[in-house]
Amino acid sequence: MHAIPLAFFARPAEEVGPELIGCRLVKRLPNGELLWGVIVETEAYAQDEPACHGHRRRSPQNETLFGAPGRFYVYVSYGIHHCVNVVTDRQNWANGVLLRAVAVPGEPERVAAGPGLLARRFGIDRGHDSRPVTGQHDVWLAQRPASLVSPTLVTTTRIGISQGEQLPLRWYLQASRSVSRRAKGDRTPARGLAWFPDEEYGR
Questions:
Q1: pTM for the whole thing?
Q2: pLDDT higher for 55 or 30?
């Protein structure tokens, strides 16, 4: 599974966020096998708005978010679970995309339907913070397969935050049943009509 080029991430989070839908989160296991899933939900954050971790100050905990694009930024939410982000845009400007949900082939459809569940299923923690997402380590982001070049997305407001929740900076794959929370009025697709899995995903 070919990694996404670094240049892809050197853009604002609101551009990268929707284009990550359909891409794959991949982890090479100790036995050499690949654990992977399709990213079906993302959220964007930028330094100039209050929900971003870098809005108020730069600290050792959020230093990665101010660094070079194309790296994982992993933090602990409420002292309970990890959240996996991808740093975007440019250095010295806090900007990133939260990976909110992933669909894993052959597993329960909601096994990674939420940031904490996603990190748990892929075994991602603070030890992965600042590592490149472009294939140099055991976890990376891979390109979309041809069957998802132009996926149908839903754009909606962010969730699970107390500030800036009204901004339309969350996207999800409409055809997926693995989304953490659907927009009001958007019904969950019926089983048997979903896009996933597809023959191309085995390649």
A1: 0.93
A2: 30
